[in-house]
Write a structure and sequence with these properties.
It contains nine helices and five strands. By secondary structure, the protein is of the alpha/beta class. The termini are far apart. Helix 2 packs across helix 3 and helix 7 packs parallel to helix 8. The protein is elongated, with a radius of gyration of 40 Å.
Length: 231
């Protein structure tokens, strides 16, 4: 039987176990704030360096700095105007380009759709005051009436034909006989997605005041931003 003295010695020999220390972890919010502060200091330092470089460049090249500053202001103003819709670059009008962006789009339209598309195309010209679709069963050679700001009236006849169906001489005679006396217009234009026959071109060339004939190729150039027939 162990005596009390032996028990005390055995207890003294046993190593005392100390609880392990866990590393102190910072809360996630505190760590995020610390990273944000470090990133802010880094950005501030870079900004100071860039500012110092700009100041040094401005002192060394004052004229060049003024030119670059002026160009930067101009670009900023243009970007601001474009974002607010006050400035539209050529070809940036997506609503119209989606409807009439190529000759193939016109070729797949109905006759009425083609007339309205030509009217929309005419309205793109800053010199046009109005473009009204007036086609119908008894249009007498007038599908779209274009009125320019200078007062001129243009009678436009629209012929949405297939490639094998060409516009003949009767269309020339009809438009020529009605655009001035009946519709009180100053000029006449015939626009087609196809081509004109040789007889039509000969008949038009023989007129005292030939009409403006726009075939498929001419229409494609007009769509792409070319001059309008009355330009």
């Amino acid at each position: 039987m162990a005596t009390p003295a032996r028990r005390r010695r055995a207890t003294a020999r046993r190593p005392t176990r100390r609880p392990g220390r866990r590393p102190v972890r910072r809360p996630r919010g505190q760590a995020a704030r610390q990273r944000a502060r470090e990133q802010g200091l880094t950005r501030f330092g870079l900004a100071v360096l860039v500012l110092a470089a700009v100041v040094s460049f401005a002192r060394e090249y004052p004229v060049g700095t003024g030119v670059l500053g002026f160009l930067a202001v101009v670009v900023a103003v243009l970007v601001l105007l474009a974002r607010t819709g006050r400035l539209r670059f050529p070809g940036a009008d997506g609503t119209r380009q989606d409807v009439t962006h190529s000759l193939a789009a016109y070729q797949h339209m109905t006759g009425t759709q083609f007339e309205h598309a030509i009217a929309d195309l005419a309205r793109r010209d800053p010199g046009v005051r109005s473009a009204t679709v007036s086609g119908g069963a008894n249009d007498r050679g007038l599908d779209v009436l274009v009125v320019l700001h200078d007062g001129r009236r243009i009678a436009v006849q629209c012929k949405r034909y297939g490639e094998r169906n060409r516009v003949g001489a009767p269309a020339i005679y009809t438009a020529n006989g009605t655009y001035a006396d009946f519709h009180h217009c100053d000029a006449a234009v015939i626009v087609t997605t196809s081509r004109f026959t040789r007889d039509a071109e000969t008949a038009n060339a023989s007129l005292p005041a030939p009409l403006r004939l726009i075939d498929g190729r001419g229409l494609a150039r007009w769509i792409a931003g070319g001059r309008p027939p009355w330009g």
